[in-house]
Design goal:
72% of the residues lie in helices and 0% in strands. It is built from 31 helices and no strands. It is mainly α. The protein has two domains: 416 residues, no CATH class; 56 residues, no CATH class. Helix 2 crosses helix 6 and helix 15 packs across helix 16. The relative contact order is 0.07.
C-alpha cells in the first residue's frame, strides 16, 4: 500500500494549503452568515410567546432560579418530565436577563442558529475535502458556502428557530456539528493533539445529547463517514495505479504486477481505524446507550410512547415508510409549511401506495450502497439523512408523526448535495455554449432558490407571531390535525370563548382518542359551560389514559370544588400531596379549599406550608393577609403578611402595588 500512503500525504498537504488560504478570510464567511441569518429572522423579534411555550418557559418555575441549587435541580431527572438540562439552563440564563420578555429569548435562539450555520460551513468544507478529492482547489469552499446559505435560508428550519420551546434543536445542532467538525479535524492530528480533539468531541456530544437526546445517533454518523472515507482511499489508490496502463513508450504491465489493494481491503480499513480508536468509539457509544435508556424511561414515564398505529407492530412499521417519504417531501417540494401536519394513510394499509413508498425507500438504500463504489458523497449523505431521521420515524410510535423540526439535523445532507450539484453545474464546459453560460445559469438558479427559500422563511416567521396566528394557519392548512385543533382550542379557552374551544378540542379527540391533554382541557371547558357529566367523563378518561399526570387530577379537584363536592376535592388534593409532599401549589390549593369551606385555621396552616416551600411566590402571603383581614379581623397580622409578600416577590409589580395600597389603607384606618 505505499502508493496510497504517498497520495494521502499529498492530499493532506494540498488540503492544509487550501485551509490556510481559507483561514486568511476566516472572519468574512462567519460575518456573512451572521448578517444573512439576522436579516432572515429579524421580523421574528417582535413575536410573542405562543401557548406552545407556556409549559416550558412562562409557567416553568425551574428556570427562575439560577443559583447553584437551581442549576442542580435543572440537571436532576424528574419523573414524567423531559430531560434536556442544557436547554433548561439556557432558559434560566435568559430569564435572569430578560425575565419574560420574548425578544430576549428569540435573540438567543437566533444566536445559536447562527453558530449552527457557521459549524455547518466548517463541517461541509472538511467533508467535501475528505470525500471529493478530484476537484479544483476552490470547489470545497464553494460547496460549503452554497450548502450553508441554503441551510440557513431553508424554511423548514423556521420552527426550530422561531418556536422558543424548540431551542433544543438549535442547541443540539450547534453541539452536534461542533462535535463532527472536531472529529474531522482531530483525526488528522497525531498523539496528544488527536487525544485533545477526541476528548472535545465527547464533551460536545454530551452537550448535544443533553440539549436533545436524539443526538445519540452521532456514533453511527461517524461510522458512516469512516466507511465512506475508507472506500474513497481505495478508489484513489486504484486510480493512482491506472496511469501505468496508459503510459506510452513503456512496456505494458499486467494487472497482477500492480500494487492494487484487494477488494476485501476496502471493508478492512475502516474496521482497522475503529479498532485503533476503540476507546473513543466505546465511550461515545456508551454515552449514547446510556441516554437512549434515559430517553426510553422519560418517554415511558411521560406517556410519550403511544399505542401502535394501525393496531399492530407490522402496520406501525409500514407507516414509518410514509413518515420517511413525507420527510423527504418536507425538504424538497413543500411550499406551505405548518406547525402541524396530517399524513394520509390508507386503511387498510396494504395497498399500492404502501408498496410504492416501501419500494422508493429500498431503491434509495440500494442507490446509496451502489454509490459507495463510485460516489462516496451520495452514500454518506443518504445514510446521514436516514440515521439522523431514525429517532423520528415512529418505529416506536411517538405523539407526532411529522414535524419541521425533525429534519433539522437531517437537512444538512440535502444542502450538502445541493451545494455539490450547483458547484458541478457551475464548472460544466460544452462546445455549443459560451464559456460563461453554465456559470451564469448555475448562479441564476441558485439565487432564485435562495431568494425563494428566504421569502418563505420571512413569511413563516409572521405566522409564528402569536398563538392565534399560528394555529389558525395550521387548522386552515390541515383541518384534521390533532395538534392544530388541540392548541386552537387552548387559544379559545384563554380567550374565554368556551363553545368554540369545545368545538376544536372535540375535533382533536376525534382524530387522536388517546390525547389525554385535550380530554383534560375539554373537561375544564365542559365544567365552565355547565355540563358536569361530560366534564367528569373527560377528566376520568384523561386520568385512565395517563394516571401519572398530576395536572389532570388538579383540574379534577378544581371541578369538584366548583361543584361544591368538597370532600372529593379534599381527597384528590391529599392524594396528590402524599405523592408530592414538597409541592407548594398543592398546599396552596388545599388552603383555598379550606377557606371556601370556612375552615380558616386549617386554611392558614396549609397556606403557611405553601409559603415555606415557595418563599418567593406572592400568592400565599396575599391569601393569608386576606383571611386575617376579612375573616379573622386581625389587621396587624394582615398587614404583616402583605408586607412579607411585598418583600418576597418584588418582580410581581402589579401585585406588589396592590398590596402596597392595602397596607396604606390599613395604616390610614388605624
Amino acid at each position: 500500500m505505499p502508493r496510497a500512503t504517498a497520495m494521502e500525504g499529498n492530499s493532506s498537504e494540498q488540503f492544509q494549503e487550501r485551509e490556510r488560504k481559507l483561514s486568511f478570510h476566516s472572519w468574512v464567511i462567519p460575518a456573512l452568515i451572521s448578517v444573512f441569518v439576522g436579516i432572515l429572522y429579524f421580523n421574528s423579534l417582535g413575536n410573542q410567546f405562543t401557548n406552545w411555550d407556556d409549559g416550558m418557559i412562562c409557567q416553568n418555575s425551574t428556570i427562575r432560579d439560577l443559583s447553584w441549587e437551581g442549576i442542580k435541580r435543572i440537571f436532576t431527572y424528574v419523573k414524567a418530565n423531559t430531560y434536556q438540562p442544557v436547554r433548561m439552563l439556557s432558559y434560566a440564563i435568559d430569564y435572569s436577563i430578560w425575565n419574560l420578555n420574548p425578544m430576549g429569548y428569540r435573540i438567543t435562539n437566533i444566536f445559536f442558529y447562527i453558530l449552527t450555520c457557521i459549524m455547518v460551513f466548517l463541517t461541509l468544507y472538511r467533508l467535501s475535502a475528505h470525500l471529493r478529492d478530484r476537484v479544483t482547489s476552490n470547489s470545497h469552499a464553494q460547496v460549503a458556502l452554497l450548502g450553508t446559505l441554503l441551510f440557513a435560508a431553508h424554511p423548514v428550519h423556521v420552527e426550530a428557530v422561531t418556536w422558543l420551546a424548540a431551542r433544543k434543536e438549535v442547541l443540539q445542532g450547534f453541539f452536534f456539528f461542533l462535535a463532527f467538525y472536531l472529529y474531522l479535524k482531530g483525526r488528522e492530528g497525531e498523539g496528544r493533539k488527536k487525544l485533545i480533539y477526541l476528548v472535545l468531541v465527547l464533551l460536545s456530544l454530551l452537550f448535544a445529547i443533553l440539549s436533545k437526546p436524539s443526538a445519540v445517533v452521532f456514533p453511527a454518523v461517524l461510522l458512516i463517514y469512516e466507511i465512506a472515507v475508507a472506500q474513497n482511499r481505495w478508489i484513489d489508490t486504484f486510480d493512482g495505479a491506472k496511469p501505468r496502463f496508459l503510459n506510452r513508450g513503456k512496456k505494458r504491465r499486467s494487472v497482477s504486477t500492480l500494487s492494487i489493494p484487494r477488494a476485501s481491503d476496502r471493508g478492512v480499513e475502516w474496521v482497522d481505524f475503529v479498532k485503533r480508536h476503540w476507546l473513543f468509539f466505546s465511550i461515545s457509544t456508551l454515552i449514547s446507550f446510556i441516554f437512549v435508556s434515559v430517553l426510553i424511561k422519560v418517554m415511558l414515564d411521560a406517556g410519550g410512547i403511544k399505542p401502535y398505529r394501525g393496531g399492530s407492530f407490522l402496520n406501525n412499521f409500514l407507516i414509518s415508510f410514509y413518515v420517511f417519504i413525507y420527510n423527504i417531501k418536507l425538504l424538497v417540494c413543500t411550499i406551505n409549511y405548518s406547525a402541524a401536519y396530517t399524513i394520509s394513510i390508507p386503511n387498510p394499509i396494504w395497498g399500492f401506495q404502501t408498496f410504492l413508498f416501501v419500494g422508493i425507500t429500498f431503491l434509495l438504500f440500494g442507490l446509496s450502497l451502489w454509490s459507495l463504489k463510485r460516489t462516496k458523497v451520495i452514500f454518506f449523505t443518504l445514510f446521514f439523512f436516514f440515521v439522523t431521521l431514525l429517532p423520528y420515524l415512529n418505529i416506536f410510535p411517538i405523539s407526532t408523526l411529522l414535524a419541521d423540526r425533525y429534519v433539522f439535523i437531517a437537512s444538512f445532507s440535502y444542502c450538502f448535495l445541493l451545494g455539490i450539484v450547483f458547484d458541478k453545474f457551475y464548472r460544466v464546459r460544452a462546445k455549443r455554449f459560451s464559456e460563461g453560460f453554465f456559470k451564469l445559469l448555475s448562479i441564476a438558479i441558485f439565487i432564485f432558490i435562495l431568494i425563494a427559500y428566504s421569502f418563505m422563511t420571512i413569511h413563516q416567521n409572521q405566522i409564528w407571531e402569536n398563538s392565534y396566528t399560528l394555529w389558525a394557519d395550521a387548522v386552515e392548512k390541515y383541518p384534521d390535525s390533532n395538534t392544530a385543533n388541540a392548541l386552537m382550542g387552548v387559544v379559545y379557552m384563554d380567550l374565554g370563548m368556551d363553545e368554540k374551544a369545545a368545538k376544536y378540542l372535540e375535533k382533536a379527540i376525534e382524530s387522536v382518542p388517546y390525547d389525554y391533554q385535550s380530554r383534560n382541557n375539554l373537561g375544564v371547558v365542559y365544567g365552565r359551560l355547565g355540563q358536569p357529566e361530560k366534564a367528569l367523563k373527560e377528566f376520568m378518561t384523561a386520568i385512565w389514559l395517563n394516571p401519572e399526570r398530576d395536572t389532570v387530577k388538579i383540574n379534577l379537584s378544581v371541578f369538584y370544588q366548583t361543584q361544591k363536592e368538597y370532600q372529593k376535592c379534599e381527597e384528590v388534593l391529599e392524594h396528590l400531596i402524599a405523592r408530592d409532599p414538597k409541592n407548594a401549589n398543592l398546599y396552596f390549593r388545599l388552603g383555598l379549599l379550606y377557606k371556601e369551606m370556612g375552615r380558616y385555621d386549617a386554611a392558614i396552616a396549609e397556606l403557611i406550608k405553601s409559603m415555606e416551600l415557595a418563599p418567593h411566590i406572592i400568592n400565599p402571603y396575599e391569601e393569608l393577609g386576606n383571611i386575617y383581614l376579612s375573616r379573622m379581623k386581625d389587621t396587624e397580622k394582615a398587614k404583616y403578611f402583605y408586607l412579607r409578600g411585598i418583600e418576597a416577590a418584588p418582580k410581581a409589580k402589579s401585585r406588589v402595588e396592590d398590596l402596597r395600597w392595602m397596607v396604606q389603607d390599613l395604616e390610614c384606618h388605624q
